[in-house]
Amino acid sequence: MDFTTQPKPATALCGVVSADGKIAYPPGVKEITDKITTDEMIKRLKMVVKTFMDMDQDSEDEKQQYLPLALHLASEFFLRNPNKDVRLLVACCLADIFRIYAPEAPYTSHDKLKDIFLFITRQLKGLEDTKSPQFNRYFYLLENLAWVKSYNICFELEDCNEIFIQLFRTLFSVINNNHNKKVQMHMLDLMSSIIMEGDGVTQELLDSILINLIPAHKNLNKQSFDLAKVLLKRTVQTIEACIANFFNQVLVLGRSSVSDLSEHVFDLIQELFAIDPHLLLSVMPQLEFKLKSNDGEERLAVVRLLAKLFGSKDSDLATQNRPLWQCFLGRFNDIHVPVRLESVKFASHCLMNHPDLAKDLTEYLKVRSHDPEEAIRHDVIVTIITAAKRDLTLVNDQLLGFVRERTLDKRWRVRKEAMMGLAQLYKKYCLHGEAGKEAAEKVSWIKDKLLHIYYQNSIDDKLLVEKIFAQYLVPHNLETEERMKCLYYLYANLDPNAVKALNEMWKCQNMLRSHVRELLDLHKQPTSEANCSAMFGKLMTIAKNLPDPGKAQDFVKKFNQVLGDDEKLRSQLELLISPTCSCKQADVCVREIARKLANPKQPTNPFLEMVKFLLERIAPVHIDSEAISALVKLMNKSIEGTADDEEEGVSPDTAIRSGLELLKVLSFTHPTSFHSAETYESLLQCLRMEDDKVAEAAIQIFRNTGHKIETDLPQIRSRKKTSLMCTLSPLSRSLNADVPEQLITPLVSLGHISMLAPDQFASPMKSVVANFIVKDLLMNDRSTGEKNGKLWSPDEEVSPEVLAKVQAIKLLVRWLLGMKNNQSKSANSTLRLLSAMLVSEGDLTEQKRISKSDMSRLRLAAGSAIMKLAQEPCYHEIITPEQFQLCALVINDECYQVRQIFAQKLHKALVKLLLPLEYMAIFALCAKDPVKERRAHARQCLLKNISIRREYIKQNPMATEKLLSLLPEYVVPYMIHLLAHDPDFTRSQDVDQLRDIKECLWFMLEVLMTKNENNSHAFMKKMAENIKLTRDAQSPDESKTNEKLYTVCDVALCVINSKSALCNADSPKDPVLPMKFFTQPEKDFCNDKSYISEETRVLLLTGKPKPTGVLGAVNKPLSATGRKPYVRSAGTETGGNINVNSELSPSTGNRSREQSSEASETGVSENEENPVRIISVTPVKNIDPVKNKEINSDPATQENISSDRGKKRTVTAAGAENIQQKPDEKVDDSGPPAPSKPRRGRRPKSESQGSATKNDDINKPISKGRKRAAGSQESPGGLEAGNTKAPKLQDVAKKAAPAERQIDLQR
């Protein structure tokens, strides 16, 4: 056997061999015999030890010289010497001898070797005492043995196992917490070499290791457990087979006699799994066999074991051994009740430590939630609630649904556990907001569900709901302001049935309070038969309102006797039910009454418990005069707009209305608490509000509580009558467009009234909208704007007429949002009107009387209005593709503030998931924004939106059914379609235009491809490939349109392939394309053509510098080949409908840019005070109008604007909206080919620094993109919001001028 050797420095040893062949000792060492004293022997042995320590394996002469001495030291005299120091020194010598003479030991007798190693093993016990003066020598002995691997010599012995067992037991017994890491390391080296270099591990040797893992031994000597654990980890590859054999003998063959540890197999499996699961690779299938045992107790033991293995925090057993996991899950349906119970208990730990397994557990917990055993149903609830309280994300909606179902269980214990568990979750996540708003929304249904249980017939359920309300929904121990805020917003968020249940709860408590009050009144009357009879009836009525009415009758009678005898107790109860009792007084009274009835000698007092039930029901723990005052203040804040209504999930209007309803209910149950001048003053403000329901509720409160107003508060009485007259009188003033300064308030009021009370105002508002809003206000320019060239002005400089028009647009939107239907086609007409405003750049009449800054305001209002309408599904359905694309182009507006505010509104709606996913595609156009900060803001918006959507999908398992509208990657087809219809994208092979498309694509894809979640890169690539197998649903038969679509797809594929090496993997699922944008793939249609050349690909990917250019047109023309263009001419207004006819104007309409580094003429315009360069353009070939499409939109709220830098776009021919189309209209397509189209985008550095031109450049002429079409006849008509029509176009087909770009607003 080879032993590890290490050369040591040679040392000259002058040994002397006697002539007669006696033992040679080192110099200075006399003969060591039994005739010398022990001290002398120790002295001489120390010198021998030093000599052997200094020798190395290469000292052949010394080895031969001291061989007799080595044999002499192994004699019985030394091995059995009674002195421990002598034995220690001899052991050290023997260890060095094995080192020096390796690989062959000087001892040839197997018996002698056995005696020597057993002797050395016994000396190792000295390691136990670390404070011993000889500890260093013991450590040297251990170190030497471990370093040389001396025990490996024993492998040649037949009974070596005895030596190894003795060694292992010795080392495990001496290890303690006083040893340093070196001691443990040498022990491990010594034992691991025996295990790994031997022929196998016997059962006895294995037992000597495993016994240290048994809980009893583990608790006695933690260090031996740690040593065994590290040893097993180190030798896992070798010892695993031995462990498998042991468990196979015990578990499968049932041979428990093979080891004394057989009865601890499950404890050992648990410990071994915790140490290293690889130790049990062959054992786990044996456990699967045991799980199917016919013995229920045996199955129970295995289930308990596997529950610990699967449920431990760092365990991946469920994923590594799926068959065992599935077999274990089958025990949830075991016939043995304790097995099912144990399985359910395990689920709690599994959910907390392995949320990824929740999906597997859900179905089994669902079955067990209907288990016939009450205890199992109860534990299912405990399991789910425990995990949810730990972290709400650990349980999905389905699991919470099981708890919800059990609130109606037939057993009271189960119902109570379910209700209390849900209440605790509500308090933790909704009231305390411990996990944010998303968690609060996830359990927001709990409050409604718990209150719905009040409809149950069981008095126990009703009482528990009342207790939950007082302790969890609106905790009574909160301060008054906080408690009322909680109640205020709870009431505002409840569903109608929950509101009714809460109202009923207060009503029942008030009735019980009345019964107790009547009982006390009977106590004040003289005793009589009638009085006793009335009192008995009252007691029976009260008992019915307490749990277990049978027992309650006896307790109520006893309580009545105590009341008759104790006048103090009676006065306390009278104060408790007094209308003027405050919440704090009520708390004191309840505690005082309970103290008087308590019996110290009786720890459990059913009588006292019953009285407490009664007191809790009648005590006013929530409402008193101070609480009502706090509620009214909250409502005032909502009216003033200073409350946190939006943060609490309700609109201010909803908060005000629900607050009034709450006060109305409380005015029935606590009328006395309203008697204060402050409260009535606030109610008078509500009477002056224009909301009928608010006013109605305020009147009802006055009716319920105001019976003392005339005597106590006369000033309130007179003001109340005046307010009622103002509220109930009809709107007397008419709207006058000639005085726009006085229009703002009426327009805002009418808008909100029509939205909040559509049933009453929908029909009357239609005529107001048609005759005044559209005809008189929006379609007329009564004043002339200031021609200062600015693109934006501060709010105070905006003309009153434009402010009125902005509010008129908001009124149209609010009116439609109130109706929430399009039966009258009013929404179609409104959308056409808004689109016409975008096409005309804000100058709807095209009379050129409105200033540039006012036009910016109106463009922003129109774009925001379309987004706002898109939030309502019924209007989202009818928004056409052209209208969506017009709305999208507002984010590339020439005015910086318009771009900024529009992007903020878009982000605000998207982040709240109010807008559909396609609106996120608009952010791709931000790649063309010339301002770096705007691009950075857009990117942050994208990151936030994508993060929110992904998190929403994770936390809402049910959301997987709506992935098409939620999954961020599904924005890719919308983006591709939007870019394919980009008006600046006119030629599919133009490299510069393709580079623009590539930048827009990468602006979005860069954020989406930050992570490759669920192989999303391949998924997006698959979407682009699938689009090439469809046609553009907007123009399915137009080859040019489809070619542009396929070209954008190829650019997207080029970008994805170049940026991700993971996109070539298989897509996890086949993507679904939106049918509104793409046709169904044809069966035999195959499109493997590449629409961009290899050279173009290289140019796109190498980042060749782009030519100069500036931001494009405000409202870019939308190309849809094959549609006939129409021109809008100036029109007159007659009757109910207005037909608008306008010629193409050189100063209005869609704007475009020409890509040219050397512009023919340049000028400077101004957005605020910042000059920007204008590049003139030449006429562009016909771009046809667009077909229809559906999309969603965003809230339009005005925000404070900062005056930042923006870019002016070049003016081209005006677009026109057409409502009715003549089939014989044609446009001459002849003419010069279209020049290179200018790019919207960032200005080159050369221009960004050199744009400071002279002021007189503003007046330079700008070459127009096209001329106005020939004059057309004016046709009479009128424009009504309910049925807006634009005029038919006149004959312009035979003109040789370039074709005009049009927007068809009818379709």
TrEMBL record:
Gene3D superfamilies: Leucine-rich Repeat Variant. Keywords: Cell cycle, Cell division, Mitosis, Nucleus, Repeat. Its main location: nucleus. Residues 1291-1307 have a biased composition (Basic and acidic residues). Pfam families: PDS5 (PF20168). GO terms for biological process: cell division; DNA repair; mitotic sister chromatid cohesion. SUPFAM superfamilies: ARM repeat. It is found in: Nucleus. GO terms for cellular component: chromatin; nucleus. InterPro entries: ARM-like (IPR011989), ARM-type_fold (IPR016024), Pds5 (IPR039776). Residues 1120-1307 are annotated as: Disordered. Residues 1131-1150, 1194-1203 have a biased composition (Polar residues). Belongs to the PDS5 family. This is PDS5 cohesin associated factor A. It comes from Nannospalax galili. The lineage of its organism: Eukaryota, Metazoa, Chordata, Craniata, Vertebrata. The gene is Pds5a.
